Amino acid sequence: MLERGFDGFTVNDLLRRSGVARSSFYAHYRDKEDLLLHGFEEIGSPACTADPAAPDASQDLPDFAHWIFVATEDSKALTRSLREGSSRALVDQHLRNILTVQVREGLRTRQRDSTVPLELAVRFHVGALMSMWQWWVEHDFPTPARAMAEHFNRLMRAGLLPPP
Asked: I need a labelling partner for 162 at 20 to 30 A (CA). Which of 27, 43, 76, 106 fits?
């Protein structure tokens, strides 16, 4: 994948290069897209712990931004490869799904503003995080991952405008 991109290799290429038998591959995966999605298990899911730098960490959301930015920074070449061609939409949707489930669970017990429906708050958080992450990757990682996570968390806590 690093050499030819996701669209540039077939399952047969993978089997030939790895020495894995066809039956073994298909006993575990439906196709190369399924293999790709299983690869996300390597980076795991966002840890359900709050940002320790938050003023009231017990009420803060788990640090989803740290998870996605640091995991990506640790795999820049692979991320670049996966963000080209047909794998881009698959990767983005899978990350969005992982984050949606985790953020929903984190907000379910912590949401302070009951006037905003839970699902709207979830979509707002995930949409903002995915947008910042996509910008960061598309601009070739211009800021360190930890700084990106801090920027995101600061914006989520304080909002874009200072209080009146």
From this structure: 106
Q: How far is CA 17 from CA 4, 20, 21, in A?
A: 13, 8, 11
Half-sphere CA count of 106, side-chain side, radius 13 A: 26
pTM, to two decimals = 0.77
Backbone angles phi, psi at 108, to 5 degrees: -50, -40
Residue 62 sits at φ, ψ, to 5 deg, of: -55, 155
Residue 96 covered by a domain: yes
Q: How far is CA 113 from the centre of its chain?
A: 25
Please state, in angstroms and rounded to a whole number, the distance separating the CA atoms of residues 31 and 34: 5
CB 5 within 8 A of CB 81: yes
6-47 pLDDT, tens per residue? 888 888 988 998 899 999 989 988 888 888 777 766 666 665
Q: CATH number, domain at 46?
A: 1.10.357.10
Classified as helix, coil or strand, 50 is strand
Instruction: Name the H helices within 22-144.
Output: 22-28, 32-43, 64-73, 76-82, 87-110, 118-138
User: Cα separation of 32 and 44, whole Å?
Assistant: 19
Residue 130 lies in a domain: yes
The pLDDT mean for the chain works out to 83
